[in-house]
């Protein structure tokens, strides 16, 4: 069965739908006649506004691109504590794999603790995040920093978030492929406020606390406001929930549908197979042994336990069910590992503006954020020496002659230790600009600079040279191990080595001397500089046409970005055991851009054309790294009547190669020789003739086995071009005047060409041998004439290159109704998103991910329904969030039944792997996730100068879908958009002054 992670993100902006009379679901732009909320509240004038997706200010602007709006009021009523979670739970994100706080143990772009959004499932690098209409610089740790970290924004300062559900590179530049997230902060405060928020699950773990305060003043010539926030998320550990503490097989009989999992005789429950540790693998006789425990009756030799060593029992012997009942598959380190990462964050934000002369305003935006986050994990300790094995021939075992090996043959011991990582990030952002009016033209000139400084520590790691020294032949520890004494150790500190087969060591209880000798921690540092200058002029009265005034905007930008990730000394010198290592990533890029946009009123007051306008935009970008790109977009708004409107757009977008894709320092991992297409080629009757000829000409080895291959993930600076995309949207908006109903239905699609990815080692060699010589310099073979390793694959540089085409299509439905019902004002709103296509083509092979689980790119459907009732000082809220069902059967030849030798029973004749025949040991896997929904409710009271909201999230305590082996899971809980905390109560208290 296959398992594969496809992936392992002051201009006032107001969307036309923003007029809301009560709290509601995140909304989609739906009507053309509504005015800004402030105007509806009784203001006597209508101010010019700019809709996300345009640079032109207009009193009656209605975007031809759909915009979804999430207000701070909505997130408060839903019990959502920060911007990141509000966006990750939106319908445009929740049904796609996301970089969130549930990925302990996984290597993620931007490092642990980073939260970014991938709209439509296209990846966070293809979603542009802007603050108040301005591009925001990335934040994170490690060599793969790529997207804006949503955690840096203080939620108390956010007025609303607008999501442009369309490509917009012609307006905003690179990365605006799948959409644009515009986070809009407050500028109108005249007074102060303080808020406290606390969320507490009914079961312990995953608590959240937010304290914030803000103060502002407005006056005739300007405004100033400052906000500060403290946010803390407590760890949720595997042991805190039943559905994460035990990973059962969760398998079923294909005929009867009955559960076939083994039952643990110690608990009477299905056996947990969490993490196998505390055992010894005999390499000479190919069996796994676990130390016996008093009081347990172990199988006989005839039942599979043919161990020849007293005090040790053989376990996990295929064909013998009883040997699986005492598998050592749990430990305290596994149970203490985090499901949700703990985090502490401090943020301060300042917005200010002052009219220095009539018509000229000086303004600034300043932001500082400090984050401390960590992930607690559990890792196995076993004899694997990676590049020491490759370069110096150190065997991956504890030799029979080592004094700490009592078995008389080479073994691998499998112990455990806590493997954690820690991040501390300081993020600075500053904007200073001048803006004003000259006649009919508005102008804005500003500079922005952001700096992310990250320090990270990958917790305890094992010195590779010392690990080899402790597992060398004939001696418990040697000062001259194969590969050399890189860390300058002295075995006098541990003359007797480490008793690897002792239960104390196998369970991770190292002595202080052992820990000091074997383990180390070291700090790594990442900085990301992002700065640019932009000048913009715009007018909504360029000249007149019969249908109205023509609007226009023109601008230019110069931007520079730089990354420098410096791993610690041991890591960048590849002296770390059992983990991949990384070299330094350093590089920069500069871009110069010009752009323009025109808004053309075409028809007005004509039958079936009450108001028709077109918007045209284009941008030219010149990058130092790869060259230039030109993008454009054309949009049409056709209002048949005040009640009906058609909107459509077609355009191109692009994504310049990210700095890490260009300059990533070699990240070394290790693979088996079987990744070589020449592996055992003399016995491979189906090998491509061109590849066969290449293997022979290259002197590839004709034998099997061999040392691991060092596979380096590296930047592809000289190989990369920009990704390009084409997008098309068409939608219908219905806003009848006789009721407060708004309905919009949009069809969307975009196609990404030359998507940046990595080919993988096998494909690189295959392309070389098929005559594509550019790939032949990306790998090496061992040249040792006469040696057993001659011709073996040694290294592969798996560089980022343009390799794929990706296609996405779908439908978005937004419905909202608001009106008085006697009891108060009722608002009902709903958002739904449904994917019609999600595919990727590499060369000529197209793979569909439509409807797959988060093991790939997420389900087809996501939706929500929210209801709120305003009555006097009270607001009642009820919401439902939904994720559609998913299936991965199509990734396994359309079936979920496979042979599993774990469930063979040789003594009783169950011995066949033929699932169509009798006496087979085939089982049915749970390769599906069920339709999932969680309900939330809250009640808010607004008093004189204060307010309080009490809510319950996940009201019915809906657990994540249960899945088994082969799925993306933690325990038996499916990842990664499902609620891991469970039912919880939240309390928010606010005070204004």
Quick overview of this protein structure:
This protein is mainly beta and 993 residues long. It contains 14 helices and 48 strands. It has a 22-stranded antiparallel barrel. Strands 1-2-5-6-3-4 form a six-stranded mixed β-sheet. A three-stranded antiparallel β-sheet has the order 11-42-41, with no helix packed on it.
Structure, explained:
The protein is mainly β. About 10% of the residues lie in helices and about 45% in strands. The protein is built from 14 helices and 48 strands. The strands form seven sheets. It has a 22-stranded antiparallel β-barrel. It has a six-stranded mixed sheet with strand order 1-2-5-6-3-4. Strand 36 (about 825-840) and strand 37 form a beta hairpin. The N and C termini lie far apart (about 60 Å).
């Amino acid at each position: 069965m296959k398992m594969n992670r496809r992936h392992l993100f002051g201009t006032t902006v107001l969307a036309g739908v923003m007029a809301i009379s009560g709290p509601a679901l995140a909304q989609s732009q739906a009507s053309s006649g509504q005015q800004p909320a402030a105007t509806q509240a009784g203001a006597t004038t209508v101010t010019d506004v700019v809709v996300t997706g345009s640079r032109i200010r207009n009193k009656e602007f209605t975007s031809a691109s759909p915009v979804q709006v999430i207000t701070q009021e909505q997130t408060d009523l839903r019990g959502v504590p920060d911007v990141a979670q509000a966006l990750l739970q939106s319908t445009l994100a929740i049904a796609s794999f996301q970089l969130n706080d549930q990925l302990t143990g996984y290597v993620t772009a931007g490092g642990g603790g980073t939260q970014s959004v991938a709209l439509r499932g296209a990846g966070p690098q293809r979603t542009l995040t802007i603050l108040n209409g301005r591009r925001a610089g990335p934040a994170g740790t490690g060599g793969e920093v790529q997207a804006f970290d949503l955690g840096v924004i203080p939620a108390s300062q956010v007025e609303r978030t607008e999501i442009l559900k369309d490509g917009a590179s012609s307006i905003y530049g690179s990365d605006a492929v799948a959409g644009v997230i515009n986070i809009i902060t407050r500028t109108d405060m005249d007074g102060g406020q303080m808020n406290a928020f606390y969320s507490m699950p009914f079961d312990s773990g995953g608590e959240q606390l937010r304290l914030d305060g803000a103060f502002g003043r407005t006056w005739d010539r300007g405004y100033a406001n400052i906000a500060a926030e403290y946010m803390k998320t407590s760890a949720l550990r595997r042991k805190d929930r039943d559905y994460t503490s035990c990973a059962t097989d969760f398998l079923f009989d294909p005929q009867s549908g009955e559960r076939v999992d083994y039952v643990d005789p110690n608990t009477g429950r299905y056996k947990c197979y969490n993490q196998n540790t505390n055992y010894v693998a005999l390499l000479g006789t190919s069996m796994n042994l676990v130390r016996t425990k008093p009081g347990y009756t172990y199988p006989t030799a005839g039942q599979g336990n043919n161990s020849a060593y007293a005090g040790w029992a053989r376990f996990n012997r295929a064909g013998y069910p009883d040997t699986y009942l005492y598998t050592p598959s749990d430990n305290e380190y596994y149970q203490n590992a985090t499901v949700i990462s703990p985090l502490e964050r401090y943020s301060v934000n300042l917005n200010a503006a002052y009219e220095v002369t009539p018509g000229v305003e000086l303004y600034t935006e300043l932001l500082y954020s400090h984050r401390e986050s960590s992930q607690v994990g559990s890792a196995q300790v076993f004899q694997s020496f990676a590049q020491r094995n490759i370069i110096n021939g150190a065997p991956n075992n504890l030799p029979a002659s080592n004094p700490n090996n009592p078995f008389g043959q080479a073994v691998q011991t499998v112990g455990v230790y806590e493997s954690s990582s820690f991040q501390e990030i300081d993020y600075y952002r500053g904007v200073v600009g001048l803006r004003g009016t000259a006649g009919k033209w508005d102008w804005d000139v500003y500079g922005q600079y952001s700096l992310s400084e990250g320090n990270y520590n990958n917790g305890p790691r094992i010195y590779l040279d010392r690990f080899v020294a402790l597992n060398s032949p004939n001696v418990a520890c040697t000062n001259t191990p194969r590969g050399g004494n890189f860390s300058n150790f002295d075995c006098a500190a541990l003359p007797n080595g480490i008793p690897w087969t002792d239960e104390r060591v196998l369970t991770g209880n190292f002595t202080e001397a052992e820990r000091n000798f074997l383990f180390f921690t070291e700090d790594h540092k990442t900085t990301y500089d992002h700065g640019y200058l932009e000048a913009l002029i715009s007018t909504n009265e360029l000249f007149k046409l019969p249908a109205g005034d023509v609007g226009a905007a023109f601008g230019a930008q110069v931007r520079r970005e730089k990354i420098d990730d410096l791993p610690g000394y041991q890591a960048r010198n590849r002296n770390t055991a059992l983990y991949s290592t990384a070299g330094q990533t350093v590089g920069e890029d500069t871009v110069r851009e010009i752009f323009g946009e025109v808004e053309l009123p075409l028809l007005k007051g004509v039958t079936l054309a009450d108001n028709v306008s077109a918007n045209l935009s284009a941008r030219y970008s010149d990058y130092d790294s790869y060259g230039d790109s030109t993008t454009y977009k054309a949009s049409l708004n056709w209002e048949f009547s005040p009640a009906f409107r058609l909107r459509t757009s077609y355009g191109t977008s692009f994504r310049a190669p990210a700095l890490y894709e260009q300059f990533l320092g070699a990240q070394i991992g290790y693979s088996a020789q079987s990744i070589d297409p020449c592996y055992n080629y003399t016995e491979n009757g189906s090998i491509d003739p061109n590849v066969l000829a290449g293997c022979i000409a290259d002197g590839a080895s004709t034998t099997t086995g061999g040392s691991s291959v060092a596979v380096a993930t590296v930047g592809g600076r000289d190989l990369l071009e920009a990704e390009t995309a084409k997008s098309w949207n068409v939608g219908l908006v219905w806003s009848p005047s006789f009721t407060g109903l708004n309905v919009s239905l949009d069809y969307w699609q975009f196609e990404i060409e030359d998507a940046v990815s990595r080919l993988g080692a096998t494909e690189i060699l295959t392309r070389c041998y098929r005559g594509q010589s550019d790939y032949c310099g990306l790998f090496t073979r061992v040249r040792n004439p006469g040696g057993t390793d001659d011709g073996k694959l040694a290294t592969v540089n798996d560089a980022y290159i343009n390799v794929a085409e990706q296609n996405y299509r779908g439908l978005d439905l937004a419905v909202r109704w608001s009106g008085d019902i006697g009891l108060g004002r009722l608002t009902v709103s709903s958002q739904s998103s449904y994917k019609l296509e999600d595919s990727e083509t590499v060369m000529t092979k197209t793979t569909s991910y439509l409807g797959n689980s988060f093991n790939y790119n997420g389900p087809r459907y996501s939706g929500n329904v929210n209801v709120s009732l305003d009555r006097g000082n009270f607001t009642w809220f009820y919401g439902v969030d939904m994720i559609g069902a998913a299936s991965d059967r199509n990734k396994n030849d359309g079936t979920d039944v496979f042979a599993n030798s774990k469930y063979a029973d040789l003594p009783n004749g169950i011995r066949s792997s033929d699932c169509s025949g009798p006496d087979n040991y085939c089982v049915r896997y749970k390769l599906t996730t069920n339709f999932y929904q969680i309900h939330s409710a809250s009640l808010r009271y607004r008093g004189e100068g204060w307010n309080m909201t009490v809510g319950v999230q996940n009201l019915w305590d809906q657990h994540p879908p249960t899945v088994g082996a082969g799925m993306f899971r933690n325990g038996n809980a499916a990842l990664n958009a499902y609620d891991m905390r469970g039912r919880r109560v939240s309390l928010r208290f606010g005070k204004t002054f």
